[in-house]
Amino acid sequence: MTRIDRRGFTFGAAAAALAGAGMPARAADGLHKRFAGTTLNILSRTSPAFDVTVRIGEAFTEATGINLQITRVAPSDHYTKLMLDWTSGTNAYDVSLFIYQWKPDLAQFLADPTPSGEAPPLDLDDYPTKVLDVYGRYENRLVGLPLLGDVAFLLSNNAIFEARGLRDVGAAKSWEEVVDRGRRAAGNDVYGYALPAGKTPQCYVTWSILYHAMGGRYFDAAGRIDLGGEAGIKATRLMAGDLQSIAPPGNLTWDYNEVLNSFSTGKSAQAVMWAGGLGALSNPASSAVAGKFMVNSTPGSSLLGGTSIGINAKSRNLEAARLYLAWLTSRDVARRTAAGGLSPARLSLLGDPELSARFVHYAAVKAAFSGDTFGYVPIMEAEQILQMIADEANSACARTKSAEQAAADLQRRSEQFMRRRGYSK
């Protein structure tokens, strides 16, 4: 597997220099007002990375007269709320963010975002082919546009490491090394690793990274799902035993935002974090660790993340929604949201000298997009399998099951699911 360069790099205070940059009026120049008075209902998330997309929407409303009613939900609630709205026919939301593992479930409800009238160009050739295919296409049909480009990184607090005698250690080469460093860094109200062990998306993210690092590949040579085999047992043991032993108390309900908070306040010495969260962590106005942390690829594997934005095919405001998506994801506006901390998916921005000088992880993100990363279980209803992973990992971390029993139960449940859905006999 080709991986991101493992060299360590440190974020300085300059990384947040663009975070408060204003948005020039030209970001909304040339937009027509044919849909003035329309209201678009948008389902977004509470993750700090998307704060800038809310703020910048004011310029769109001023230029077009289209009102944006944005509802923000916790990442752990997003899938359920969106699926309930669109599958029930309620259709309260014209537009929603979504993550690529939901794409098979959502594709039937998503409209092609290509505008039929005057709008900023989509510039699809500015996205890496893999990113556009994974984030935005389903069965050769465009169903969404990349909004946030993401891979998972391992973060380490340099100040804590140095205080514990861990100077110039560089990138951890294995998860056992992560655990060892966490044990040495813990103490004085500081914990070794910010482990999200709730029945939440960030829990199954962590388990998936560990599983692949242990050699797991979702399916065996015969095409049968293989989550509870040797790799699954090792991943669950490491998560529920070693990492849980150096994690903060109360983490059995944690998801993304709790991890971000624990690391940003200096309570945890290490964490897995998406590129999308690095802007907030690098902003001294909101983070106690700005300029004090190291970023490396996760040992043994690189998980592709990311967020797309799509349009409800049953929306009564399809063309207004297409105009909004074309504008929000356009090169000009995407550069401004990148300056505000939203990790971009566009090649032109990941290679932009000014942005790259401030957000030095861009080179690693760009390399990952062109390299060999892994994703989530490649089936329809993947979210249901992922939720099983979170349930069983949580049970192991809570000590209500042994790691071996949790892995066995995960295997049994996933096999039953695959049979019920006709993937296997």
Description:
Residues 1-25 have low confidence and may be disordered. The protein is an alpha+beta fold. The protein has helices at residues 51-64, 75-87, 103-106, 129-136, 158-163, 175-185, 201-213, 230-245, 256-264, 278-281, 318-328, 331-339, 347-350, 353-358, 362-370, 382-397, 403-420, and strands spanning 9-10, 39-45, 67-73, 95-98, 110-111, 137-138, 141-142, 145-148, 152-157, 270-274, 293-297, 307-312. The radius of gyration is 21 Å and the shape is globular. Helix content is 40%, strand content 12%. Strands 2, 3, 4, 5, 8 and 12 form a six-stranded mixed β-sheet that branches. Strands 1-11-9-10 form a four-stranded antiparallel β-sheet. The chain is built from 17 helices and twelve strands. It has a domain at 16-150 and 305-370: D-Maltodextrin-Binding Protein, domain 2, CATH 3.40.190.10. Helix 7 (201-213) packs across helix 8 (230-245), helix 8 crosses helix 17 (403-420) and helix 16 packs antiparallel against helix 17.
